[in-house]
């Protein structure tokens, strides 16, 4: 087992240049979706999916009322990616075991094992995974598994001009993130916070973030909503058991009503041999 | 309040078809088992009809599921772990899709065996293997086999609801009652279908009133579970989405489809058992069976349609 690696994506220094998106597509030979004008911001990628493994979201924080210079946090730039969760929802439900944890502690979909059932898409709380019509399997960020195996850093981190995407051993990144947060807070940026640095979100994220607002503002589930699919197994099956017991009991009651049988048979006789009931 | 940021898995028409047929087949096998184990000798005719229906209803299920896969030829990856270095069987008790794949395979075997047994008992199948199966199932072993088959049938009819809940999708994962709801609806639909099919077999009519009575109980159960699902969604804050246009109207139609069996349109037994009916009333009720059947089956299909599609669109 190699050392666990991670991404520390610091949104406070992201400038929305989308170099990460481009580098990801270049290296992983993703052709991208058909160009679309979303008319919402400079973000025309829209979301993470089978063709977009990095997505720079432009989150509108432009105040409705006029404001003085320096008082408007206009946009939150957020280079989103698969979180490579320690407790990964996609991996949990995958019936073919196509989704594995690699020797680098990242989450990887084996393309030759996946059969395209799409259960992982239903499970991923971040909407990361997409189904490719071309390969008829599901895809997401591989953490540049091929580059890691060759001792290279992932393409997105390599090209990021502001070091908003930092790559390295997870423990080192966590220390850097703690220091960065302390610096920001000392400067009075009290809204800064780390997301996925500790184990409160899916046991900890290998790709964790420094955010400038609450997670929901970025389309990320907060700690209360960061729950695994299997939470519903116990109660779901309990509901089934109760229903099955009541259903079988209903059958038993209906079948034990012998008096009813006799009355029905008498009615049948009254109808005669041709009577249809 | 639950907040969801997931993508849609695009489980659509094939999955709807599977959920519908799987629910009916599992329900049918369960009814057959109950009729044979606990019914009077005259209920055997309806039990045989149900065993005969359960297998063909099931036959389409794996086909629909396989077609829905991106890579249909890899359907067996659900059962065998093909990850290099892993090997062995792919089975995860915490993943309903994994357990369901195995349950479907096993249930299929039981449904086939019971189908062969009944065809042989009816004198329609005379192959030595078929006769051997019928002979082996003649005594206590047969009762054990159909008991286990019914448990698997109950699972097949219900796990699909649990599968939806074991996700992070809005609506699906906001309630734990979908498994129960799918089961109640599967039982209700199969009781209606069996009451209709049983008329085409001599002596099958003797069971009609029992099925109508069961149908009524199952409808009550389903109504309770619909209320429970909606209460769960209200608690999670996703009720508005679940009842938005056009889903609210469709939920109302699902509830309406349960009214005929509730008010006793299910068959003569309701009138006869309550002592208020005459033979003419009973005959009229029998004639009204087909619309009732259509209404209940449409309700079974519609409920699954609403649950599947309202979360994804």
Secondary structure topology:
The complex is a heterodimer of chains A (277) and B (313).
Chain A (H helix, E strand, L loop, with lengths): L4 E6 L8 H10 L25 E7 L14 E7 L7 H5 L5 E3 L5 E3 L9 H5 L6 E2 L6 E2 L5 H5 L5 H5 L5 E5 H17 L6 E3 L11 E5 L19 H26 L1 H14 L6
Parallel strand pairs in A: 1-10
Antiparallel strand pairs in A: 1-8, 2-3, 4-5, 6-7, 9-10
Chain B lengths: L12 H26 L5 H25 L27 H26 L6 H9 L3 H26 L12 H20 L10 H29 L2 H4 L4 H11 L1 H4 L5 H6 L5 H9 L1 H22 L3
Helix pairs in contact in B: 1-2, 1-5, 1-6, 1-13, 2-3, 3-4, 3-5, 5-6, 6-7, 6-13, 9-13
Describe the structure.
The complex is a heterodimer of chains A (277) and B (313). Chain A is an alpha+beta fold. Chain A has two domains: 5-225, Alpha-Beta Plaits, CATH 3.30.70; 231-271. Chain A has eight helices and ten strands. In chain A, strand 4 (99-101) and strand 5 form a beta hairpin. Chain B has helices at residues 13-38, 44-68, 96-121, 128-136, 140-165, 178-197, 208-236, 239-242, 247-257, 259-262, 268-273, 279-287, 289-310. In chain B, helix 1 crosses helix 6 (178-197). Chain B is globular. The two termini of chain B are 20 Å apart. Chains A and B meet through helix 2, helix 3, strand 6, helix 7 and helix 8 of A and helix 1, helix 3, helix 5, helix 6 and helix 7 of B.
Proportion of beta-strand residues of chain B? under 5%
Determine Rg of chain A (CA atoms, Å): 27 Å
Radius of gyration of chain B: 20 Å
Q: Give the mean pLDDT of chain B.
A: 91
Which structural class best describes the helix and strand composition of chain A? alpha+beta
Strand content of chain A: 15-25%
The low-pLDDT segments of chain A are: 273-277
Distance between the termini of chain B: 20 Å
CATH architecture of the largest domain in chain A: 2-Layer Sandwich
Give the CATH level 1 class of the largest domain in chain A: Alpha Beta
End-to-end distance of chain A = 72 Å
Summed up, the domain count of chain B is 1
Q: What is the architecture of chain B at the second tier of CATH?
A: Up-down Bundle
Q: Catalogue the unreliable spans of chain B.
A: 269-283
- How many alpha or pi helices of chain B? 13
Work out the helix count of chain A: 8
The shape of chain B, in one word, is: globular
Subcellular location (chain A): Cell envelope
GO molecular function, one term (chain A): 4 iron, 4 sulfur cluster binding
Cofactor (chain A): [4Fe-4S] cluster
Binding site for [4Fe-4S] cluster 3 (chain A): 82, 85, 90, 124
């Amino acid at each position: 087992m190699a050392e666990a690696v991670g991404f520390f994506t610091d949104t406070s220094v992201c400038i929305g240049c989308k170099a990460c998106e481009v580098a990801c597509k270049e290296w992983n030979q993703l052709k991208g979706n058909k160009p679309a004008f979303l008319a919402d911001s400079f973000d025309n990628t829209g979301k993470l999916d089978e063709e977009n493994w990095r997505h720079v979201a432009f989150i509108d924080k432009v105040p409705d009322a006029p404001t003085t210079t320096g008082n408007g946090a206009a946009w939150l730039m957020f280079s989103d990616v698969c979180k490579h969760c320690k407790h990964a929802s996609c991996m949990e439900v995958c019936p073919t075991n196509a989704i594995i944890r690699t020797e680098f502690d990242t989450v990887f979909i084996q393309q030759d094992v996946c059969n395209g059932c799409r259960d992982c898409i239903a499970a991923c709380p971040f909407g990361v995974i997409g189904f490719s019509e071309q390969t008829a399997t599901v895809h997401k960020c591989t953490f540049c598994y091929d580059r890691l195996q060759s001792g290279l850093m992932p393409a997105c981190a390599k090209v990021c001009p502001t070091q908003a995407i930092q790559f390295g051993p997870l423990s080192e990144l966590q220390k850097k993130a703690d220091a960065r947060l302390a610096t920001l807070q000392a400067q009075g940026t009290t809204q800064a916070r780390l997301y996925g640095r500790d184990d409160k979100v899916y046991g900890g994220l290998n790709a964790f973030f420094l955010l400038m607002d609450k997670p929901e503002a970025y389309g990320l589930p907060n700690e209360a909503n960061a729950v695994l699919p299997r939470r519903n197994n116990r109660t779901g099956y309990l509901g089934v058991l109760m229903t099955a017991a009541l259903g079988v009991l209903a059958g038993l009651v209906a079948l034990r009503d012998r008096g009813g049988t006799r009355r029905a048979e008498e009615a049948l006789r009254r109808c005669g041999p041709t009577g249809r009931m | 309040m639950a907040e969801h940021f997931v993508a849609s898995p695009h489980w659509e028409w094939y999955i709807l078809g599977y959920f519908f047929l799987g629910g009916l087949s599992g329900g049918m096998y369960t009814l057959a088992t109950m009729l044979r184990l606990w019914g009077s000798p005259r209920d055997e005719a309806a039990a045989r009809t149900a065993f005969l229906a359960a297998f063909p209803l099931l036959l389409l299920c794996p086909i629909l599921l396989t077609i829905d896969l991106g890579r249909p030829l890899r359907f067996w990856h659900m059962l065998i772990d093909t990850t290099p270095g892993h090997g062995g069987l792919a089975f995860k008790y915490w993943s309903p899709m994994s357990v369901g794949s195995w349950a479907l395979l096993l249930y299929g075997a039981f449904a086939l065996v019971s189908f062969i047994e009944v065809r042989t008992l009816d004198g329609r199948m005379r192959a030595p293997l078929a006769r051997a199966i019928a002979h082996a199932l003649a005594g206590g072993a047969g009762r054990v086999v159909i008991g286990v088959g019914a448990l698997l049938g109950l699972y097949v009819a219900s796990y699909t609801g649990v599968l939806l809940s074991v996700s992070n999708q809005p609506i699906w994962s906001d309630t734990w009652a979908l498994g129960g709801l799918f089961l109640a609806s599967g039982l209700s639909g199969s009781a209606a279908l069996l009451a209709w099919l049983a008329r085409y077999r001599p002596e099958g009519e003797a069971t009609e009133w029992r099925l109508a009575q069961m149908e009524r109980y199952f409808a009550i159960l389903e109504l309770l579970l619909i209320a429970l699902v909606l209460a769960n969604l209200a608690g999670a804050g996703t009720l508005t989405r679940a009842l938005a246009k056009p889903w609210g109207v469709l939920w109302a139609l699902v509830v309406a489809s349960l009214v005929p069996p509730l008010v006793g349109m299910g068959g003569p037994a309701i009138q006869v058992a309550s002592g208020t009916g005459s033979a003419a009333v009973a005959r009229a009720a029998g004639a009204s069976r087909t619309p009732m059947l259509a209404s209940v089956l449409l309700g079974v299909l519609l409920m699954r349609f609403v649950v599947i599609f309202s979360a994804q669109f």
